Amino acid sequence: MTVVLQAQGLGKKYGKRWALRDCTIDIPAGHVVGLVGPNGAGKTTLLKLAGGQLEPTSGTITMLGGHPAGSPAQLAKVGFVAQDTPVYAGLSIAEHLRLGARLNPGWDAVMARERIGRLGFDPAYRAGKLSGGQRAQLALTLGLAKRPELLILDEPVAALDPLARREFLQGLMEAVVEHQFSVLLSSHLVSDLERVCDFLVVLVDSRVQVAGEVDKLLATHHRLTGPRHDPDRLPAGQHVISASHTDRQSTFIIRTEAPIHDPAWTVTQLSLEDLVLAYMDQRTAENRRVALEVQR
To answer: 41: closest CA among 188, 150, 168?
Structure first.
């Protein structure tokens, strides 16, 4: 398996505060990877470390087999579109493309011009006059025209309306099909990830809770509903992700490779959002348990 990103015990500290700590992960090449987690989980910090914009405080990270900022050639392999889709308000679209050509040795000027044309943008128009969706498309064009092996997108559609989000993600997927590169996409909008991602990473408190191909994750996670049940009495191969109970009924989200034969359970499949929330709720439940112990 070719690995596009590999982190081992990775951490980043600002003063006394750890923004990312003990992060270990392998992300395979050839996928559109969705990175999801609550605010403060360390998603943006991880992406900036991957893009070579930050240096780790602890641990190691490699991108495409090398140090993220190890050389100009290494930097040229990675495109980065930040959360605020930064462009220069005073520059025209054409000036952005000329700047991209000067800064990137592998710049694909033909692709950039054609994409701007397909979007119906006037090259003479200044970026400061563009809508949020148009600025995002310009930023995506700059990232794609770099012809990277990996494109990193940090919450690129968070501030866009639903139509602009759909157009952005459609343009991204068309480019992935045409140019065959890997994508690492951070978003808190699980519905968007469900449309475009085939590999998922859930990051909570800087720790990877689960990672894998979306189809396989959905096939191995189930919701069990039935009579009130102690989770310790479930079969050893059924790993409980989250649990909730009423006086008479229990509901478990479990992970298992084996078929479920117990007729006492009603078994239902999960959506991607169900799966993500189960792993995030796992941490919330732990926080509640610790708070109760402190109160006692």
So the answer is: 188
74 domain residue, yes or no: yes
Instruction: Give yes or no: residues 114 and 83 share one domain.
Output: yes
Angle separating helix axes 93-103 and 109-119, nearest 10 degrees: 160
Tokens of 93: 């679209």
Residue 160: partners with Cβ closer than 8 Å, 6 or more residues away: 132, 133, 136, 168
- How many degrees, rounded to 5, is the angle at CA 220 between CA 219 and CA 225? 100
Can you tell me the distance from the alpha carbon of 193 to that of 242, in angstroms, rounded to the nearest whole number? 22
Angle at 125 between CA 119 and CA 127, to 5 degrees: 85
Residue 210 lies in a domain: no
Looking at residue 107, its pLDDT comes to 95
Beta bridge partners of 153: 81, 185
| H-helix or E-strand spanning residue 192 | helix 190-196
Tokens of 235: 């079969």
pLDDT in tens, 69-85: 888 888 889 999 987 77
54: left (phi over 0), alpha (psi -120 to 50) or beta: beta
The per-residue pLDDT for range 237-251, each reduced to its tens digit, is 899 999 999 999 999
Domain coverage including residue 39: 3-205
- On whether both 33 and 133 belong to a single domain, the answer is yes
Q: How far is CA 31 from the centre of its chain?
A: 11
